[in-house]
User: Fold this.
Amino acid sequence: MRVAVVGATGAVGSTMLELLRDRAFPAEELVPFASERSAGRALDHGAGQGLVVRALSLEAVEGFDLALFSAGSGTSAEWAPRFAAAGAVVIDNSSHWRMYEDVPLVVAEVNPEALGGHRGIVANPNCSTMQMVLALAPIRDRAGIERVVVSTYQSVSGTGQRAVEELMEQSRAVVAGEPVRSPEIYPHQIAFNVLPQVEAFRDGDLYTTEERKMMAETRKILGEPELPLSATCARVPVLQGHSESINVETTEPLTAQACRELLAAAPGLAVVDDPAAALYPLATAAAGRDEVLVGRIRPDPSRERCLNLWVVGDNLRKGAALNAVQLAELVVERAAPRAKEPAAPPAAA
Amino acid sequence: MRVAVVGATGAVGSTMLELLRDRAFPAEELVPFASERSAGRALDHGAGQGLVVRALSLEAVEGFDLALFSAGSGTSAEWAPRFAAAGAVVIDNSSHWRMYEDVPLVVAEVNPEALGGHRGIVANPNCSTMQMVLALAPIRDRAGIERVVVSTYQSVSGTGQRAVEELMEQSRAVVAGEPVRSPEIYPHQIAFNVLPQVEAFRDGDLYTTEERKMMAETRKILGEPELPLSATCARVPVLQGHSESINVETTEPLTAQACRELLAAAPGLAVVDDPAAALYPLATAAAGRDEVLVGRIRPDPSRERCLNLWVVGDNLRKGAALNAVQLAELVVERAAPRAKEPAAPPAAA
Assistant:
């Protein structure tokens, strides 16, 4: 089996490579792709093994069984159909293909059956959506969901390495009592601040693209196109790990204790919920962990059949690279049947 | 007029002194009180004026017209009734007296009429509550409120100077690549992290005291004892300024634009709401400002008659010192009538 990792030098791409190795993914050959600038560079792949970065070209896409993409929407829009046309199953971490009707949008533990319908491209959900859906799915299955109101506390690593550097440099300046240089990545200083903007406000929309993604992707993954959701996404000065304050209204009554047991038994989740002992999910604790952490599970006193949850996940890991690798594993395991015409890009949703 | 400021060396107390000076409060004499340790210290009060810090004693409380307290609940519980018995009107920033039935809990712009019923002690609301109520009151007056779901992003300065130092020291260590020392103020590292705990979990309660305060105090200030509210309070690595993601369900329909106009015309608020131009309330922009900032005003697509708001206020200023000074001004202005028996501490709520 030949596997391509496109965007291999980025934070998510390098985590993909690490996970493929650590989870002993059955790849005979692993080929990292990145920009022209990085081509020729050798990536350490453990055990003295080096992987040489290649640039994308029409010839280079030939002969792959799988291609994991984390290289931005533009690259995915252009190159995912080419890998697919050449016979690979593409697992794409960008937002580009997620809402296309014939592209499955899959959380490994939640809707693996959706993989069956792919036509060469499978989409990996948005990081904030991923961790929320992991917690919502068992609740939906048990008690039904009427409505979700979520506010996020998102780390900077989702934006990329330059955002991490910007936060660190600004933090250094503030601690040293120096003026903070004009921000380059975010519209405002992120160090010691909270920005109620994650991604862009498009075409005068009052919701950001991140908020729109959380609402639309959650509906698609849960297969509930009308599910009422309200999202407010904020960026906080955290390096890794997104936190979420989730208010969920269920159809049937569900006690906090029943919810706790339900989520503790659900795959991909770890319940950390002993507030009296100061045990609850933390971004610093979630970073580097595969599981999404859930805690502060409690009844909302303001309305019947409502619960509050605090959900924290590693945005680079389960929020991106881990789920992509899990989907690759599922594709291999299930040898998911594939429709006939792999070459044509899927029709717009 | 003789005015005491109790807790004058703390962050809120020193802001109180600064505001009394800057707003030209008509005090003939201003006496700062603090712990024994600080007694004798001279505080710069501008224009070459020095104020000498005194320690509290039974003799020292005599002869004041007003006493502004920001010295912790224990000090307020013990000393506020003594100042009141000696003839002062006490404006207390601690949580101790807030929920007593015969202690008015007042936001200057929202329910100044409640001052009329005081019996020597007036309570200043919790910082998170204060800024939220400023935004909710005009909405309630116009359209009625059915329910509020709020998630907070609170800065460390509310905890005190040592928390500010802890955040700065931890940030310095992380930036320098050094290990972070065990936290002393918070149960976990606050630098580059989010703690879903503000104040304590008492007696196995699943809500923190801060969350309880937000719910109970909002009801008392708005005079709606049954108002359904759900609060999730989180601490973020921000020095000054609390941010809040507020979801409000109204009784009557209210468009985002009508809400924007309503809040822009309301006292104590400044609407900052042009997201396409990256203009929205920020903690760094609110710090040092008197107004509470409101933005990201938009309809919640998940339910009829629901709006989302982003509200940011300076927790030391409007959230504490400024409102206390405004209340002092109102007391003087209105010479609020006082009940007969000032000596007895108010009955428990």
